[in-house]
Amino acid sequence: MIHLSHVSKSYKTSTRPALDDVSIDVDKGEFVFVIGPSGSGKSTFLRLVLREDVPTSGQIQVAGKDLGKLRRSKVPAHRRRLGCVFQDFRLLTNKTVEQNVGFALEVIGRPRAAIRKIVPEVLELVGLEGKARRLPHELSGGEQQRVAIARAFVNRPLLLLADEPTGNLDPDTSADIMLLLERINRTGTTVLMATHDNNIVDSMRRRVIELQLGKVVRDESRGVYGVGR
Ligand SMILES: Nc1ncnc2c1ncn2[C@@H]1O[C@H](COP(=O)(O)OP(=O)(O)OP(=O)(O)O)[C@@H](O)[C@H]1O
């Protein structure tokens, strides 16, 4: 699903590379945590997979596509095949829950009748039935993240990228969000999640890729966050 081969990324204004000769393979259906201290390159990794930025050297393939060969005009289509969830939810504040989710279908040209059918199904999946008409500010943080997950998942993406999705949530709400991401993973969607949350990583025992100063220092199946961090 994701294949990185000797990928390095240097930002113009930085002295050391944000990613330094990183080679990683993630298979379809895996659930992978990307951990590491602040500045270790986690977000950079996710941004390269999303093709929000390009590597300085090395090759990246996502879902069979070589991103280095992807024409600029095909980048939006590539991004739409992936789902993304962020720490700060990034909902459209003036749109209701159902409009936020429906919008993801509108932009890919799904007919109105299909949108009317699919949106309630996805809202039920994330446990937000009954809240479709609310605006984001009328929801708790955990509910807002559920909307963001519903929006990311409504196109049934092959891959869901989550950058610190529980970063703004309390432990109980975070655990609920993780149950939801697990459920999405069980549908066959590959999940790649950057996190600082040691409790979540330790309780889920999934693959852990640890970055330090832009290098992979650990890649373990059924890993833990690590001692003393
Ligand atoms: N747009 C940018 N321009 C210059 N340097 C950048 C840019 N984005 C990130 N960096 C640098 O690249 C390195 C990796 O940053 P990145 O955001 O990928 O780390 P991270 O592991 O996601 O950190 P955090 O956990 O704090 O989100 C850092 O040294 C950072 O300062």
From TrEMBL:
Q: Which InterPro entries match?
A: AAA+_ATPase (IPR003593), ABC_transporter-like_ATP-bd (IPR003439), ABC_transporter-like_CS (IPR017871), ABC_transpr_LolD-like (IPR015854), Cell_div_FtsE (IPR005286), P-loop_NTPase (IPR027417)
* Keywords carried by this UniProt record: ATP-binding, Cell cycle, Cell division, Cell membrane, Membrane, Nucleotide-binding
Q: Where is the ABC transporter domain?
A: 2-227
Q: Name one GO cellular component term.
A: plasma membrane
The organism's superkingdom is given as Bacteria
One GO term of the biological process aspect: cell division
Q: Name one Pfam family in it.
A: ABC_tran
Record note on quaternary structure: Homodimer. Forms a membrane-associated complex with FtsX.
Q: Which family does the similarity line name?
A: Belongs to the ABC transporter superfamily.
Protein's job: Part of the ABC transporter FtsEX involved in cellular division. Has ATPase activity.
Q: What is this protein called?
A: Cell division ATP-binding protein FtsE
Q: Which organism is it from?
A: Nakamurella panacisegetis
Q: What is the lineage of its organism?
A: Bacteria, Bacillati, Actinomycetota, Actinomycetes, Nakamurellales
In the UniProt record, the gene name given for this protein reads ftsE
